[in-house]
Every structure is written in structure tokens, then in C-alpha cells.
Amino acid sequence: MVANEFDFEPAGELKFGQVGIANLKVIRLDAARLAAEMRERVLRAPKMFEHAAVVVDFGGLSQCPDVDTARGLIAGLRDAGVLPVALSYGTRDIEHLARALQLPLLAKFRAQYEPAPTDSAPARAEPRPPEPPKPPEPQVPEQSIGSDAIGQVHTQPVRSGQQVYARGRDLVLTAAVGAGAEVIADGSVHIYAALRGRALAGARGNTGARIFCREFAAELVAIAGRYKVLEDIPPAIRGKAVQIWLDGETIRIEEQQ
């Protein structure tokens, strides 16, 4: 069939917009461990992480990995249940690696919660050399009291890079959740302090789970896989006590007195 020469209707429409996507910063080049960590995340919160698109960021390494190593790492992540879709902007070596892997390069990828550079910052033709990776902080032990019916109680601050997970029950925190930290529960999450990191309730699909906190400044909140990031949250409720729940497919956030 020959198309009508006067038919100017396009077959597709291409638009560029803001898309929620995760950035996986590699701080240790250990493909097996990275895959195991990501597989555990998928098992804990499948509605949040299963088949999630991720950008792989090698900027935390002292040198760019070779093609075979990077290809093995990406294959391991796919086997774990996530979908690496691009490499994060970096050095010329990373640009060459992206071409070899046939992956796009996302220039100057920035997570939603990271501050934007100021206008006074000088323009740079090339990014500064990556800092050497920092050793991971020791995991703060979880503290639980009583029976499972009252939920898991955590009394220590949750700091950047740390994660606390309450399997099959609610999670109650009496200290702050810092930026870069993550708290997850199969039930509801109760935070009697500031929330500056990420809170995920109903991790295994419980749509009736809720999030409560005394001081709301979250990077991300999610219930049963539906989520909101900081830029989607009205400024008027930041710093306030809030309750968060799922209304159909929509996250609702309401200030509490």
C-alpha cells in the first residue's frame, strides 16, 4: 500500500519531559554484591523496584571499568530484576564506555533531592575528577520491643546510606530519618521526628498502609509502589506534621494538627 502523498499526519509524536528514574551510584566495583543488594530491594518492595529503570553511575569509582566488567555488572542488575537504561554523565572514558555498551549517556544526571548548582558557580567544560569512594557506615542495629502486633520500633537516627526494614508489620521510628536514608515497612510507617530521606509503606502491595511523620521534608514517599518525590510536594506542607495515604492510584498528603 502506498501512502497518500498529501497525508502529513505523523506516525509518532516525540516529546521530552521529566521522568522518574533512579540513579544507582557504584561505590565498589563488585558486580555480584551489587546484584545481590538490588535483588533484595526488589524482593522487599517489588511494586517499587521490580522492572524499575535505573541509570548506572560510575562516578564514585577511582577509574572507569572496562567494557567486559561493565557488561557483566549490567547483566547482573537485569537478572536481579531492574532495568539499566543508561550511564550517568562523567569522563570521556565513560562516554566511550556508553558507546561500547550501546547505552545512552544522561548528561549531568541529578537526583530529585540534590540541590541544583547555583548561578554563581563557574561553568566547566569537563566534570571534576571523582572523589575516592567512602567506606560504608556501619548499619545501626534495629531495636524492636514486644510482639509483632505493635510493630518494629527503631530508636536510633537513620543516617544517609542506611536502611531500616520492617518485614510483615508496621515500622515505628522515634528519631530522625536523614537525607539519603531509607525506611521501609510492609505495613505503615510512623515517624515521631523529622523525615528528610525516603519512606516506603505497603512495600509488598498493602494499599491500606499509611505514613505519618512529625516534620515532613521527604526526598520520596511511596505506598504500595505509588510514589511522590520532593518536587511534587506542595511547599506549604513541608516541615509540617502530615499523614500520607493512597486514594485509588493517587498519593494524598494532609497536614495534621
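(the above was protein one; protein two follows)
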Amino acid sequence: MVTLALAGDTMLGRGVADALASTPPEALFAPEVVDAVREADLFVLNLECCISDRGTPWPDPRKPFFFRAPPVAVGALVHLGVDCVTLANNHALDFGEEALLDTVGRLHMAGIATVGAGPDVEAARATAVLDADGFRLGVLGVTDHPRAYAAGPTTAGVAFAPLAAEVPDWLERTVREADADAVLVTPHWGPNMVSEPVPAVRRAAERLRAAGATIVAGHSAHVFHGVDGPVLYDLGDFLDDYATDPVLRNDLGLLFLVTLDRGGPIRLEALPLKLDYSRTRAAEDEEAAWIERRFRRACAAFGGGVTAERGRLVLDLRSTRRQPVRSSLHADP
């Protein structure tokens, strides 16, 4: 068994970048958050920015936000112990191909794998395989927006798939053929600021599961959604400087810790989080109570019962395990 930590949108630019001018990158996350992450064997998150000191803004007059973090921001990910980030999102090319390639290069130099974007479409669609004491986890990143950021045969960009319309053959084939004991697909999908997954997202999740995905962990809504067995529809936000919606409370989130074996997920624990301006800490008191109430309701919609243990929100996933949908290439004899 291994424990996989999962976190949603992590934005290290704009106000966070300003903070990094006078604050060490290790200070962006409170010690209790770092300690929780380090309980895991592997950690994967969605990096919602580029990391570079080069590039120019994407030439789209309708685009409202451009996120670029300074090179020192890599230190925050190293401090957390991040193993892999997905770059398949609507901010990977905010400062052009040059900044995207800088991002990939700096992360690789720091020992952090990347998925979902690259110098060409083949690299963007490729699977990263992470190893935890012999357990091999394949990771794929994909996004359904924007089409303009899609990588081409010789141009840098993201792994684009129109998931609202279909799960393309190449994506199903890549999931099926992954040389790993388990496969995590982490899509950036659906609309922003919605409290539950839209029907198109639910259909795409089922297709990915049928293709052989062990876990599907999405993001884009900026608020966490319910868990349906091995599908975490939206991980919510993890670090940013975003304005707070008073109803959806995108400043309150979760860090997910999923225990799994070759048959799939067994247990999920979630640490309630408070996203202060450019810093993330554990939620307290009424903050944590609000998160618990909302997570209970969101999971109940899928038949899941949440319990509270030692400040964590817990789901037993054994009852939702299907027969394994993939035959491991590395299973014990």
C-alpha cells in the first residue's frame, strides 16, 4: 500500500510572487500542512502558473489573468516534497512557450516530474511514472480548456482534450497502456466556481475509469467537490491570492491523502485548510466546521459517509472498490 497526497490549484504568481520578494518560499505553507503532506509516499498537485523570469503575456485581449511565479518559487514545492505537478491548465502558457519551457526545465532540475504540458504534443500527453518502494504510479494530466493552449507536433503547449464532448481515443489508450501498478488521471475540467460536478464531467470520469484509471482527481472549479469512490471530482484550491466568494468560500479547502494498493483506493483522509492571502494553514474552529458540513453533504450526494477522526475527514473507500480494471504489469506473482 502507498499513500498519495493530492492538492488542487496551486498559484505561485501575482500576490504570492510579491510575497516571495520578502518571504522565503518555505513560509508559504504552515508547518502543520507540510507535516501532513510528508505523511504521504507521493505528492501530486496542479501548478496553476508558469515559473520563469522570461516571456510575454499571451496575446488575447479577453484573457483577464496572467500568472507567473519567480524562479525562487520552486523552493516552496521542494519544501513540500512535491513529486509531480500537472501543467495541463489554462495558465501554463500565460507567458508563452518560453516561460512554459522554463517551468518544465526548472521543475525537472529540482527533481519534480511534470505531466500535461511540454515542448510538443507527444511530451504533453506522456505519462510520468512515480516509484514508491516498488509501487509504480502512472500520472497523466489533461485539460479541456483552452484549446488555444494545445501543444502541437512541434509547438509547446498543454495536453488538450474536449472532455465536455468526448474522451478522445488517445487518452483512453494512454490510460490503458500505462506501464504502472496504478494510474492517476488528473484533469483540469469543467466550469469555475460551481459547487458540484456538471454532467459532462461525471460522464468523462466514468469513461476514464472504464479505460483503466485507478484514481481520477480533477480541478478547475476552485472549490472542492464530493468524492465518488475513486473519483475526486475537484480538489479545490491549495494556495493563491484569489478574491473570496462569500457563499462558495474558495478560501476553505482540503488536502487529500489517499491510501491505495494495486486494487485501487482503500481510504481517504482530508485535512481542512484555510487559504489566507498567499499562505495556507490548517483550518480552525468554525472554518473547519464549515468545511466538514460542506464535505459531508457533497459526499452524501454520491452515497459516501464521512467521519471525523483527529481533525481529519475520513472516507472508507473499500466498499466502492470495483474489480480491478487493469492488470498490473508489476503485480507480485
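Reviewer note on protein two: Residues 136 and 180 are 5 Å apart (CA to CA).
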